[in-house]
Amino acid sequence: MSDVALIVFSNRGRLYEYANNSVKATIDRYKKDCVDSLNPGSVSVANTQFYEQESTKLRRQIRDILNTNRQILGEDLGTLKFKELKNLETKVEKAIGRIHSKKNELLFAEIEFMQKRIAETERAQQQLNMMPASEYRPMTSQTYDVQNFLPVNIMEPYPQQLS
């Protein structure tokens, strides 16, 4: 599709315009294309400069992060002044505090989970103890499956009595 714009000024100074899209958009496009055609490398040069600046900035950030990581691990501390060392120590202490908090949170969650499992096991044991004695008898010795070495039955039902 082509963009067409027609601008006419009459002898009396009146302005007439016609465009299949937008006169302003067509004129802006024309101006942009004229500037680009006069200096075809300007856009690519500008892009190249922008990306070079960004890569330099990112390299500097990476270098700073690596230095900070080494310092947190206790390496490359020779260039730091007392105040910088004190700030680093404070950051490390705060990080250790967050680590301890997270560790305790996980431990408490695990303890709670285990307590729930113990309570469930105790409830199941109570229900088993409430069953009439005629329905089960505790085994005096454990029976094992010879092939897999696993217990076969913990509780064995009484054999049916023939009368």
UniProtKB/TrEMBL annotation:
Gene3D superfamilies hit by this protein: Transcription factor, MADS-box
Gene Ontology molecular functions: DNA binding; DNA-binding transcription factor activity; protein dimerization activity
Name of this protein: K-box domain-containing protein
PANTHER family according to UniProt: SERUM RESPONSE FACTOR HOMOLOG
Species assigned in the record: Fraxinus pennsylvanica
InterPro entries documented for this protein: MADS-box/MEF2_TF, TF_Kbox, TF_MADSbox_sf
UniProt keywords, alphabetically: Coiled coil
GO cellular component: nucleus
Highest taxon in the source lineage: Eukaryota
SUPFAM superfamilies tied to this protein: SRF-like (SSF55455)
Domain K-box: 48-142
Lineage per the UniProt record: Eukaryota, Viridiplantae, Streptophyta, Embryophyta, Tracheophyta
Coiled coil (UniProt feature): 85-131
